[in-house]
Amino acid sequence: MMLGPSYNHTMETPATFFLVGIPGLQSSHLWLAISLSVMYTIGLFGNTLIMTIIWMDSTLQEPMYCFLCVLATVDIVMAFSVVPKMVSIFSSGDNSISFNACFTQMYFVHVATAVETGLLLAMAFDRYVAICKPLHYRRILTPQVMLGMSVAIIIRAVIFMTPLSWMVSHLPFCGSNVVLHSYCEHIAVAKLACADPMPSCLYSLIGSSIIVGSDVVFIAASYNQIIWIVFGLSSSNAWLKALSTCSSHVGVMALYYLPGMASIYVAWLGENIVPLHTQVLLADLYLVIPTTLNPIIYGLRTKQIRKLSWSLLMHCLFDHFNLGSRTQNLFRR
């Protein structure tokens, strides 16, 4: 596989970067391409299905489902930003990416991850209000409040992540243009700079820790209150039902936060402690696995979405079957 020239000693910014893929696992690239393609297809189909169901069914216009619809949109944006290029690298060796495309990809990944953690916080707040203050649910989570929360989440992501992408894109790149990663991951690109990348790396670490840390604290506080209320219920069926409504959200949070923070801090530990291929693989899976499993978890755990998904799929299949039968009969005539 050609990686392009190793070094470019001119002081000009390289027009193209070359993504290695997963260093040390080149022999497994084809299997990785197949796996990523399957996960990408499942994630794209599942998230699109959830968005369609929530958009079409008027009974699902509650705050939780609206946040879920936005989450599905963010998952699609995140996967679309990285997976097609990763599959291209693993399957055909097409590993070149332009300078502008590289930093555009980096920016969308950063903003999407920051928006996603904000949405998980908003969904935790929704569960807190629904279980701890059920009589005031409609009064607290009005459409105006939901819109304000969504806008605040997006603004926070843009404010935090725009300076990071600006800092990295304005570093001088006068040496190697070979990125030891399968997408334009921030630290992997910053290491290629001829100047000290530490300011941008520190900004990334501190900014991510502040955003994720604050969100996790508020989420934990919300669920602490939920647990106290739930186990204070007299009926065992009532607290089982309440816990069931929260279990899917907890599962999604575990899928997002655990590999996400592991990916950030593992990159800081360096190759001497954690092998490079492990770092890259963890970063790749962190972007792909939540996108793939989020719609499955919500689809399986949410009875209403599960029933509507099945009905919609059956409707589409029968319509397709009936159309095929009518076409065959037409040709027989």
From TrEMBL:
Membrane topology: Multi-pass membrane protein
Domain (G-protein coupled receptors family 1 profile): residue spans on this chain: 46-298
Domain of life: Eukaryota
Database matches in Pfam families: 7tm_4 (PF13853)
Family (UniProt): Belongs to the G-protein coupled receptor 1 family.
Major location (coarse): membrane
Descriptive protein name: Olfactory receptor
Subcellular locations according to the entry: Cell membrane; Membrane
Membrane spanning stretches: 30-53, 65-87, 107-125, 145-168, 205-231, 243-268, 280-300
UniProt function note: Putative odorant or sperm cell receptor.
Keywords assigned by UniProt, alphabetized: Cell membrane, G-protein coupled receptor, Membrane, Olfaction, Receptor, Sensory transduction, Transducer, Transmembrane, Transmembrane helix
InterPro entries assigned: GPCR_Rhodpsn (IPR000276), GPCR_Rhodpsn_7TM (IPR017452), Olfact_rcpt (IPR000725), OR51/52/56-like (IPR050402)
Keyword Protein biosynthesis: no
